[in-house]
Structure formats: structure tokens, C-alpha cells
């Protein structure tokens, strides 16, 4: 019986996280879906949660398993799951000597890195998932703790959410720096949290705003633009 290895397609804002390995020598410099081996008696979901906490310092929620299992030599096999970051608003980063670099890749960027062979069969399904991602809304907060609280609540409710720090437009370098929360949550859910944490939605007249592609610079207003109430 082959030993099960699990990998995580961590998705956020229409992108997936790729990790560059440092070892063993034959894999160093190549990219993979982060994860690791399932220990005897351990559930695959639990193994994935454990490995990502150790390697990247993140809590994750398994959404579903991707199709297929890929043999690795004659002793191991790889299964991969679609996951989202949960818990607090931490940013993934290498925590041990397994990886030295991370990249968020959109569906048209997946071929920009040299993937390890066992991960390649999952890329087509990952690309389809990224392209089917819903519109991204954004809310802006002047307090980092407020932005983090909103992200935690959205993730607890099952939505994808993360924070990006963006400099307020203007000539004063000492101006406050707002924090933008990007999420696939519906506007009504985000609006309630905005009201509770003194932020504003980046939308006009209550219309849903899809916003720029994740990772692109945000052209923030110089003054809050709040949703107009009827």
C-alpha cells in the first residue's frame, strides 16, 4: 500500500499559492502545492491542516478534494485539496526549511513556475476553479485591527477574505494608511461589518463593485465614500 501525501491548493482572490522547495536536492528550486505525508491513523484533512500550520503558519479549511490521485514512484501517492485560509488574518510565510519562497498565481500564470511532476495533473482543475471565482468586493478601514476583525468574521462565515495595505491617495506622506479587505462575500454581508467597524465600501449608490483583479494596486479615494442609503 502506498503512503498518502496531501497537497493544498490554497485559493484567495482568484489566485493559488505555490511554494518553492529547498530540498531534497532533486526538488530544490521547483514549485509545489504545500503539504506533506499523512501519518498512520491520521485523517487526510487533519494531516493537511497540521502540515500547513508547520510549514506556513496558517490555519486552513478544506473545501473539497480535487479529482484523482497521482502515484509518486512506487511507494507514495499524492491527493490534493482545495482549501481556504481560516482563523486570524495571518499571511502565509515559510516557517521551516522546506520552502524558501511563495507566490500567488492567477489562472494564466500557472505555467510561469516549474512545478514538480506530481502536482501538474491538478493544475487544469485549479485553473478552472480560479476562473470561476466570484466578483471581489473591497471595504476600506483606517484601523488595522478593524480590518483583521472583519476578515476573521468573513472567514468564519465561509467566505474568502484577506487584507491588503494600501497608501491613501494624496501628497502628505504622513497621511493615514488605510487597510483594504478584499472578499467574495455578498455586499449585504460586508455592509453590515463596515457599519460596525467605521469603514466604507468602495462602491457607489449601493451597486456591487467587482473591483480590480486581486493583487493590483487600489486607487483609493482621498475621503470616505459611503454607500448611499435610501
UniProtKB/TrEMBL annotation:
Enzyme class: hydrolase
Ranges for domain Nudix hydrolase: 1-127
UniProt keywords, alphabetically: DNA damage, DNA repair, DNA replication, Hydrolase, Magnesium, Metal-binding, Mutator protein
Residue ranges, annotated region (Disordered): 200-230
InterPro entries on file: MutT-like, Nudix_hydrolase, NUDIX_hydrolase-like_dom_sf, NUDIX_hydrolase_CS, NUDIX_hydrolase_dom
Reactions the enzyme catalyzes: 8-oxo-dGTP + H2O = 8-oxo-dGMP + diphosphate + H(+)
EC number: 3.6.1.55
Cofactors named for this entry: Mg(2+)
Pfam families from the UniProt entry: NUDIX (PF00293)
Gene3D superfamilies attached to this UniProt entry: Nucleoside Triphosphate Pyrophosphohydrolase (3.90.79.10)
Family: Belongs to the Nudix hydrolase family.
UniProt protein name: 8-oxo-dGTP diphosphatase
Amino acid at each position: 500500500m502506498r503512503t498518502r501525501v496531501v497537497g493544498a491548493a490554497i485559493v484567495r482572490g482568484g489566485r493559488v499559492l505555490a511554494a518553492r522547495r529547498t530540498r531534497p536536492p532533486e526538488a530544490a528550486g521547483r514549485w509545489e502545492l504545500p503539504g506533506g505525508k499523512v501519518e498512520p491513523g491520521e485523517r487526510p484533512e487533519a494531516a493537511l491542516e497540521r502540515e500547513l500550520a508547520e510549514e506556513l503558519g496558517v490555519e486552513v479549511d478544506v473545501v473539497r478534494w480535487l479529482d484523482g490521485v497521482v502515484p509518486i514512484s512506487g511507494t507514495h501517492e499524492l491527493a490534493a485539496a482545495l482549501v481556504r485560509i481560516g482563523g486570524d488574518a495571518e499571511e502565509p510565510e515559510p516557517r521551516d526549511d522546506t520552502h524558501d519562497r511563495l507566490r500567488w498565481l492567477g489562472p494564466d500564470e500557472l505555467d510561469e513556475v516549474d512545478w514538480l511532476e506530481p502536482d501538474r495533473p491538478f493544475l487544469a482543475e485549479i485553473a478552472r476553479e480560479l476562473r470561476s471565482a466570484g466578483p471581489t468586493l473591497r471595504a476600506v478601514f483606517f484601523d488595522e485591527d478593524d480590518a483583521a476583525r472583519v476578515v476573521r468574521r468573513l472567514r468564519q462565515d465561509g467566505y474568502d477574505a484577506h487584507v491588503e495595505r494600501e497608501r491613501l491617495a494624496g501628497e502628505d506622506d504622513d497621511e493615514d494608511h488605510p487597510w483594504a479587505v478584499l472578499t467574495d462575500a455578498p455586499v449585504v454581508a460586508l455592509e453590515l461589518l463596515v457599519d460596525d467597524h467605521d469603514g466604507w465600501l468602495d462602491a457607489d449608490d449601493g451597486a456591487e463593485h467587482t473591483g480590480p483583479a486581486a493583487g493590483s494596486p487600489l486607487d483609493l479615494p482621498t475621503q470616505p465614500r459611503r454607500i448611499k442609503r435610501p
